From TrEMBL, chains A, B, C:
Subcellular location: Cell membrane
Purpose: Functions as an ammonia transporter. May play a role in the elimination of ammonia in the gill.
Keyword Glycosyltransferase tagged: no
Keywords recorded for this protein, A-Z: Ammonia transport, Cell membrane, Glycoprotein, Membrane, Transmembrane, Transmembrane helix, Transport
Identification of the protein by name: Ammonium transporter Rh type C-like
PANTHER family: AMMONIUM TRANSPORTER, AMMONIUM TRANSPORTER RH TYPE C-LIKE 2
Naturally occurring in which organism (per UniProt): Sinocyclocheilus rhinocerous
GO CC list: plasma membrane
Membrane-spanning segments: 12-30, 36-55, 100-121, 133-151, 171-190, 202-222, 255-275, 296-318, 346-367
Single GO term (MF): ammonium channel activity
Length: 399, 399, 399
């Protein structure tokens, strides 16, 4: 029973479902790009976890002496996390790139992720159990930067396919719900055994619950017709989980989690309504899934909340849960005081942003080479370019 | 490893999937109300768990001295259970109420649930691990009472939308299957550690398996055409899980579970065929999802089976599992003999019924006030009232 | 915490999801047979687990003295495994048999499985944690033999229904992904506690990841148009999990798993492209889901890989995981050397094949009797024979 398998495996499976079903189905919302959404998500995730096991293995073996890569369930979780960054980036370019471009994007993305993560967690000794900085901020700005470089001025040629139909929206809700339900497992999967893991799960659960309410409220209030918009329900309801990623295992109290979730629901939904059009028209960033609203802004907020929580560590009493502070200031950084730790957390956020934007621009330029078979402007968001599509409508010879 | 997290968290996640994917998708069967089914289910569940954590926290803190609300994984499970009652009630009024009405219904529902549960479990000291009485009986009669007060004589104006299409039935099967598969976790989630939890899971598994067979048999035998009806497969297959909710952790033997499941499959399917039309025409109760057949009748049966099992406790030998009786007669009720416990179980069932029907009528009257924006008779079961629906059919500019 | 429940229950639930959602939705790919796919899968699985609990209980009670059937979570897993064999067989005859025929097929299939499994595991003392031989080889050849006996020369009368539409392919991906994600739990569910279970999960994870890459590559390379085929993505991506079933808990190294998965992706996809037409035209075996490519060939490969791994046990160093050999040569076979064990593994594979083909031909002849209400050639692959189908297309009175 001492085997780490029994502590981590249920959380690993939840994270695994998020990566393959959660991300995969969340992107099926486009009316004629469901195969590409779920199929290419499957491809790049399966490719990414193998490359991530190797890359993370090499980096983590730097800390050990025998130089061998060891694989346990914690490494599988880390590989899934690593892949999550690339799948977030996929959301920005969904429907506009070829599978080969996706593989190149993933190859570089995983590599950048491994370096960035090593610097943030092992050099700066920042904490980021749920990956607000390491996964979400990095993944989102990586994807947005690539999308900025690959800007297509004539994308409205395929405008009629850049939207949902009734049933593709229902499919996307499968993705949303599995992401939403298992997010507490995501944020707690590699937290410290026992109370740390317990607390991270509970804080995430609370943040997510309050996000749903503000998302629905804002969606209804700010739409012209007063009706709810499925795009917001599918995406913004998850923003709270992103934003408590860093702080979930800290002494963020239940009320703190609820407040973070409350504001992230507002910010993310407002982002879809007001900021996405601005991003596309002024900054020339075409963001198919709106990852700026779901991952980028909440991720940065999460990094900042994490830095503040860490800096305020000694001053807070985590009364409701009766739990102690989780920082173990052992090893070379044993003497760090909370405010210093807060500074290192903020430094970690900057590292994530630099790697994301710098790496994204570089990879975007690589992907601009005319050798990757990307779709023409009028064929974007269309499965028929890369998939055998037998029949769209359910009609029959007989009737 | 002593942390309760490792005993309860996998079961919690299964229950969480039942609440959000199970209930949400089960209700997507209506041809044009899938957004409302899965979206409003999401809204009221996310709202409900927060309110339930507070309400249950206040009530449970009555038993402690420091007056603080403590949150652990068991509380999250209890909050999900609490919400389950309201989602069951939602099934009766699906498509006929506005989201604001749903929130009001949930607010009162959770409050009534917390009081009722406190009386049944902490005052009467009845046992109800899987909630046949506390969750299913309460939720179902609460919803049916509300639906009775909100009776719409001219509902057949939207009759053409009160039915399924091929693919909405397949979506609903996602809900059915996740409910069916994870029901053993539901009934065992808060059972006693070890053998109690183990036994509750196995008894539920067996009851559910036998329910499927009788549901299919009855559906085929009693339909005029001899064909199977998806409505029965989607709903009645779950009745066995409802009915062993109370008794699952008792000494109900494997054969007992199979027998309970066997009869519940028959009763629930016959309910859909014969009792639902009677309910609508004679009793003026319009029950969109047929919760009377899935939750109300099996819930009451479950309460009765629980009372009988408890009363018969010392006379039964739970030989096949080799497990002991689970009652711990400690505390102020240490001296209760099994027959007395059986009486208290029966009293618990009555409390659940009283709260459900009384509360439901009161809440129904509140919801009848003309201030909640409920849909007109001809707009029932239609997503377009509350949701931006972009396109129904998969047709394109191009073809 | 010593209770086996806490070691096995999370894996059990994953396996349960594979059986009901995984297999059920994988078969929904046919345009007009989704009810039959998910509904009959539900029926025969629910029937099968009850019969399997009894059959396996009787056989396992031979090893004990008190003659009683004991049920614990490990038995539930074994019952699910047993059912998996019959669901694989269902894939070969999907759309061409009546529900009564399916029940007969399951009744005999479970019985044959229980005998075959008892001989392989308890008489020959072969090891087969993930069931490459016991489950996949047996189930696939059992189904193929039945399909051979039930050959329909005029099946092309319902050719227009033997294919997918866009959204049925997306539904099928739900099945594929849940099978793919939870396969590590399947192969490790009954492995030895601790390292054995840990290693089986990791080896399966790696094999599956590499299978996805070769499946996509081969699908794209060998299709005339260079486009990907959803049939391959839905099925061949799972072949690696089948093939490491036997060897997963052995000292198969991570690289060994990757290599097995790599080749199985190639073989399985090539099977769909080249071997399935040959099977139908020359051998007169109509294999609706292509189980020959997904289960039969990878299953046999898995049995062979298992025999080789067992035989090579002492010569390999499982360095990367730092784990010891899992064979415990206790009991009557304590003195077996690895090469002898390898021979017994190979014998196990032969037993599985004999039971499958012999049993399949016998059951096929039984099912050929004209009393089971099977569909006419022109009604194959059509739900309307056995199900009330209300409406196929999403059209309305109003528009």
């Amino acid at each position: 029973m001492e085997n780490d398998f029994y502590f981590r495996y249920p959380s690993f499976q939840d994270v695994h479902v998020m990566i393959f079903v959660g991300f995969g189905f969340l992107m099926t919302f486009l009316k004629r790009y469901s195969f590409g959404a779920v199929g290419f998500n499957f491809l790049i995730a399966a490719f990414g976890i193998q490359w991530a096991l190797l890359m993370q293995g090499w980096f983590h073996s730097l800390d050990y002496t025998d130089g061998k890569i060891k694989i346990g369930v914690e490494n599988l979780i880390n590989a899934d996390f690593c892949v999550a960054g690339c799948l977030i980036a996929y959301g920005a370019v969904l429907g506009k790139v070829s599978p080969v471009q996706l593989l190149v994007m993933t190859l570089f993305g995983i590599t950048l992720f491994a370096v960035e993560e090593y610097i943030i967690l092992n050099v700066l000794h920042a904490k980021d159990a749920g990956g607000s900085m390491v996964i979400h901020t990095f993944g989102a700005y990586y994807g947005l930067s690539i999308s900025w470089v690959l800007y297509r001025p004539n994308l409205d040629k395929s405008k009629h396919l850049n939207g949902s139909v009734y049933q593709s929206d229902v499919f996307a809700m499968i993705g949303t719900l599995f992401l939403w339900m298992f997010w507490p497992s995501f944020n707690s999967a590699i937290a410290d055994h026992g109370d740390g893991q317990h607390r991270a799960a509970i804080n995430t659960y609370l943040a997510l619950a309050s996000t749903v309410l503000t998302t629905v409220a804002i969606s209804s209030l700010f739409e012209k017709t007063g009706k709810l918009d499925m795009v917001h329900i599918q995406n913004s309801t998850l923003a709270g989980g992103v934003a408590v990623g860093t702080a979930a295992e800290f002494m963020l109290s239940p009320y703190g989690s609820l407040i973070v979730g409350f504001f992230c629901g507002i910010i993310s939904t407002m982002g879809y309504i007001h900021f996405s059009p601005f991003l596309e028209e002024k900054l020339k960033i075409q963001d198919t899934c709106g990852i700026h609203n779901l991952h980028a802004m909440p991720g940065v907020i999460g990094g900042i909340v994490g830095a503040i929580s860490a800096a305020a560590a000694t001053n807070t009493v985590y009364g409701d849960l009766g739990l102690e502070n989780t920082f173990d200031f052992t090893g070379p950084f044993a003497k760090r005081v909370p405010t210093i730790q807060g500074g290192y957390q903020a430094a970690g956020l900057c590292v994530a942003l630099c790697f994301a934007i710098g790496g994204g621009i570089f990879v975007g330029l690589v992907l601009k080479l005319p050798i990757w078979g990307d779709p023409a402007d009028e064929n974007c968001f269309d499965d028929e370019i890369y998939w055998e599509v037998r029949q769209f409508l359910l009609t029959f010879a007989g009737n």
